[in-house]
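Quick check before the chapter quiz. The format below is the same one you will see on the exam, so make sure you can read both the input and the output lines.
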Amino acid sequence: MLTRDEYRARASREGDWAPGWEAIDGAFAAVYPGVVPAHLATLLPARAAFGGPEHLDGVSVFPNPDGYQHLVTYGLTRLYVDEESFGGAYSGWGYELTLKLRADGPDDCGWAVAALGGLARYTATSGRWFEPFQFVDGRGRPLDGDASALTGFLVVPDKEVAGITTLHGRVDFLQLVGVTQAEVDWIAESPESAPDRARELARLLADGNPRLVTDLARGTAL
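Here is the expected output.
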C-alpha cells in the first residue's frame, strides 16, 4: 500500500491514474489471468459526473470457459484519484455488482448491462445500498423484457471474486442472481425471516448450479 505522500506524488505524475479501477481489474485478473474482457463504456455525456443520468462508467464482460459471461460494474466505488477517500474504511458504496449470465457473448448481455446501470442509479439517487441476501422485485416484468420467467434478483456474495482492500477502502463484489416472481414472493411473504429465506433460496439454486449463473430459460425452483 502507498503512503499518502506516495499516493499524492503518483497522482501528480500520472494524470490518468485510476487506482480504484486498477484494483477491480486486479481482482478479476486473479480469476481470469490473461483474459482481456469486453468493456462496455458509458458515453461521457451520459455519466453523472458530466450531468447525465448514468452512475456507472461501464461494465466489463469476462467470458468464462464454462459457457457464461461474468459481468462487473465500474462506478459504485471510487475509481479515480480522490485524496479525501485515501485510507477510508470503504471505497464509495463499498461494493461493485457482478452478474453471471448464460450467454454466448457480450452482445447478448444488453439487458443485464441496463439492469446493472439501473440499480447503480437507484443507489446513487436514493442513498440505499445493497447487502447480501436482499432481493430486488421486478414486479412480474421479465428481466430481459421478453418471455423469461425471471423477474427479479437475489443479491449474494460473488464467491469467485474475493473482496479487496484498496487505497480508497474495502471493495466487495455482490452478485445478482436472476429469480422468478414466485421465488421473490416466497421471500417477501415473511418479512421477519426474509434474509433466512433468501439464504435458503440461494442454497437451493446452488444445487446443480454452484456458481449461481443466471439462465433466462430456467423455471422456478419452488
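If your answer matched, good. Strands lie at 38-41, 58-64, 68-74, 90-101, 135-136, 150-157, 164-166, 169-180.
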